């Protein structure tokens, strides 16, 4: 046999050995051919953010016969280290998903302690050889909700109840505000901070304060349906309040108040990630560049307060009657504009993006130039408000002091923007 064919055979054999070693490395920890996976939730699994992660866990647990799952709910930042340790050492899990930005640093440290295990952190930006990141991004949906809120806000005052001033939450508030501005250029958005991911009492107080301030439409980021419930209560008393659901189906809790919302399909991401772990594509040595950032295009998110219902039928006629002028689309109803933007942002090429310039901040500084879209890093590190928001964005010192007083998890600003 010639050297040429010997060399070719050698390359083929080497490729086979490498592939088999990767697969073998990935599956060497399996027991009875199964992967054991842990999910750690920052809040209770009843509504909102953590609920949708739980729905996804149940989905993949039922779908994959080679998968075994366990979970912990309502885990604080103070307890995350112990929780991870328990899942690794006592439960003998192969993969751990930490579903909060607040768990990012603890996940990185766990990756160092347990180098043969696989970790994925949701909404964080730090990675390592055995730590990947993933996120079902919702800013497109917040923009669409903003289009509707602006059209409904007769007093041109819109409220927002926000958890923490993390880049993620700031990005979503800004997207919502940009949508409001499109359909109601005179409207302003008043933001109230909870400094808690889950606190129904604070959420109720904040919502009522915004109502007293004259807001007749309110969106929120908080892991309970409190704002929607408040909206329904006021509406039933004759004071119509428009609300927008957050992360999970909430329309049934506010049938006369909940206009739309943002829904997430975490199962789409978990299915992809775990299939690749099982196949040996992802190992504890090659995750440093694995960063999921999935949106409408990937079908990881959905518009609506209920699955399959983008806009509450109670409000469709209002949006069909209201018309605006768009530079490219001409005169168009708010309803048709919302549906058109959904279609455009679901395209492979993503024909529309809310964060396309020109966009200015509260001080009038041009942040995104005309003809340019915000980059991934700009969106991930967003620490400024757009010009039609009147609420203050706390700096890190203020935020830290508020967190200490409320004994809630500390957030961290993405240092890449500094």
Low-confidence stretches: 1-28, 399-418
Structural class: alpha/beta
Largest sheet: 6 strands, mixed
Give the name of the CATH superfamily of the largest domain. Answer: Response regulator
Distance between the termini: 62 Å
Q: What is the strand tally?
A: 15
CATH topology of the largest domain: Rossmann fold
| CATH class assignment of the largest domain | Alpha Beta
Strand content: 15-25%
Order of helices and strands: HEHEHEHEEHEHEHEHEEHEHEEHEEHH
Shape: globular
Q: What is the alpha-carbon Rg in Å?
A: 23 Å
Secondary structure tally, helices: 13
Second CATH tier, the architecture of the largest domain: 3-Layer(aba) Sandwich
Topology:
Blueprint: H1 3-27, E1 35-40, H2 48-63, E2 67-72, H3 80-90, E3 95-98, H4 104-113, E4 118-122, E5 131-134, H5 139-152, E6 157-162, H6 167-183, E7 188-193, H7 200-212, E8 217-220, H8 226-236, E9 242-247, E10 258-264, H9 266-279, E11 301-303, H10 313-321, E12 323-326, E13 330-333, H11 334-346, E14 359-360, E15 366-368, H12 376-380, H13 396-406
Parallel strand pairs: 1-2, 1-3, 3-4, 4-5, 6-7, 6-8, 8-9, 9-10
Antiparallel strand pairs: 10-11, 12-13, 14-15
């Amino acid at each position: 046999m010639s050297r040429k064919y010997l060399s070719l055979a050698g390359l083929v054999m080497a490729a086979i050995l490498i592939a088999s070693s990767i697969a073998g490395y990935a599956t060497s920890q399996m027991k009875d051919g199964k992967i054991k996976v842990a999910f750690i939730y920052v809040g209770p699994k009843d509504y909102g953010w953590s609920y949708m992660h739980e729905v996804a866990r149940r989905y993949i647990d039922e779908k994959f016969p080679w998968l075994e799952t366990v979970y912990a709910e309502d885990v604080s930042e103070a307890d995350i280290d112990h929780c991870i340790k328990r899942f690794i050492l006592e439960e003998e899990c192969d993969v751990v998903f930490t579903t909060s930005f607040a768990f990012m640093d603890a996940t990185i440290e766990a990756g160092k302690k347990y180098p043969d295990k696989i970790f994925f952190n949701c909404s964080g930006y730090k990675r390592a050889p055995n730590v990947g990141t993933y996120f079902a991004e919702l800013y497109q949906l917040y923009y669409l909700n903003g289009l509707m809120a602006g059209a409904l806000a007769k007093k041109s005052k819109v409220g927002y109840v926000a958890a923490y001033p993390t880049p993620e939450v700031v990005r979503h508030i800004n997207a919502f505000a940009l949508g409001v501005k499109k359909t109601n250029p005179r409207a302003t958005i008043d933001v109230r901070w909870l400094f808690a991911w889950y606190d129904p009492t604070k959420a109720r107080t904040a919502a009522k304060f915004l109502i007293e301030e004259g807001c007749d439409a309110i969106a929120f980021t908080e892991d309970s349906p409190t704002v929607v419930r408040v909206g329904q209560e006021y509406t039933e008393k004759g004071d119509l309040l428009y609300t927008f659901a957050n992360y999970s189906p909430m329309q049934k809790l506010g049938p006369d108040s909940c206009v739309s919302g943002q829904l997430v399909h975490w199962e789409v991401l978990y299915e992809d990630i775990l299939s690749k772990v099982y196949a040996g594509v992802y190992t504890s040595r090659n995750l440093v560049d694995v960063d999921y950032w999935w949106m409408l295009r990937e079908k990881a998110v959905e518009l609506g307060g209920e699955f399959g219902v983008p806009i509450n039928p109670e409000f469709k006629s209002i949006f069909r009657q209201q018309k605006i002028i768009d530079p490219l689309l001409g005169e168009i109803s708010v309803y048709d504009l919302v549906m058109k933007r959904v279609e455009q942002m679901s395209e492979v090429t993503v024909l529309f993006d809310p964060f396309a310039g020109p966009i200015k901040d509260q001080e009038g500084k041009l942040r995104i130039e005309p003809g340019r879209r915000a980059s991934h890093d700009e969106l991930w590190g967003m620490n400024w408000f757009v010009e039609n928001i009147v609420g203050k964005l706390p700096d890190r010192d203020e935020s830290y002091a508020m967190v200490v007083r409320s004994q809630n998890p500390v957030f961290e600003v993405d240092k890449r923007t500094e």
